[in-house]
Amino acid sequence: MGEIATFSRGLTYSKKDEVAISENVVLRSNNIDLLSGKLDFSELKYLAEDFEIPQDKRVKKGSLFICMSNGSKIHLGKVAYIDKEYNYAFGGFMGQITPCKDVDGLYLHYALSSPLYKDYIKSLSEGANINNLKFKDLSEFVICYPSLSEQQAIVSRLDSAFAQIDSLKANAEKQIEEARKLFQAELTETMKPKEGWEEKTLPDISENLDGKRKPVTKKDRTAGIYPYYGASGIVDYVDDYLFDEDLLCISEDGANLLMRTYPIAFPISGKVWVNNHAHVLRFNNMTTQRYIEYFFSGHKLDEYITGAAQPKLTQKALNNIPIYIPNIETQHQIVSRLDALSANVKRLEELQQKALAECDALKQAMLREVFE
Predict the structure, then answer these.
(1) Residue 129's domain spans which residues?
(2) CATH assignment of the domain containing 140
(3) Taking a C-beta distance cutoff of 8 angstroms, is the pair 66, 97 a contact?
(4) pLDDT (tens digit per residue) in 271-280
(5) Residue 154 lies in a domain
(6) 53: which of 81, 183, 267, 362 is 20 to 30 A away, CA to CA?
(7) How many CB atoms are closer than 10 A to CB 76?
(8) Segment 56-85, tens digit of pLDDT
């Protein structure tokens, strides 16, 4: 690649140069979508109007924008094609690859989206704590290319095929989204209070076990044995690195977990680790854990949530939420029907996710055929 392209490193600036908004836009790693390899302008960084940006630190139409350094290796080497003159700068952890006149920029972009290129980038950082690329290494990547007219013909064929694949992907994603919306609408309607339902609060239907938590001690820090609960259920089996002053222990069989930041109930059993963003409850015989889970999922609780940086539901707010409860038999009927609907949605999601994976695999297979 060093024989068919030139490289340039991005702009260096400091935190004091940043402003809320200006004409000086600087692109960073998050402006390259990892999966699609396209530019993403949903989050931009701005520099002061009087900050001088050299012309060679601005992205050029027909060039490639590349991630040269990132805390996550998966983003190293990802590229996006600059499709027009944006007059945007690019940051110091980024680079720009400008092909020579004999190489089409879109052809080069496809080459740097191929499995061959991804394997090459992986080999550069594999087995070492390397989170940055060097232009010297990039320059040694071997690219085969035909005449400019044939390159453009290949690009045209790939563009057409990828557009059809993207259409299939969009249709699959739309079906998933529509299925989720239909389930959520049915859930919300189902959980609306009906005649004969009783209005209760958490203290009416559960015993709070927060007071039975035990502070973590060094002797409790046995790695990998006890499950650790986070905001979406079991996150991991605890290792030492997860422990801090906020982690607490509970050893109550048959208890349930209610998250402050995401109010869903989870059944827990035996000795587990729970962080301080959760309440530990045991529901009484008036209700079931699964019904409570669906109830909270079917209601918007925005008015009870406080905190901008880290939204949460305090104990007081949780205790004031009205919970509408039918008799146990009706609860079981509701849960059974919603479980069946949820299972149908999950089956559809699995099928469509498989289709999405096959679409991505087809793209890679086509690129492999062209560039290998």
Answers:
(1) 5-145
(2) 3.90.220.20
(3) yes
(4) 666 666 667 7
(5) no
(6) 81
(7) 20
(8) 999 999 999 999 999 888 999 999 999 999
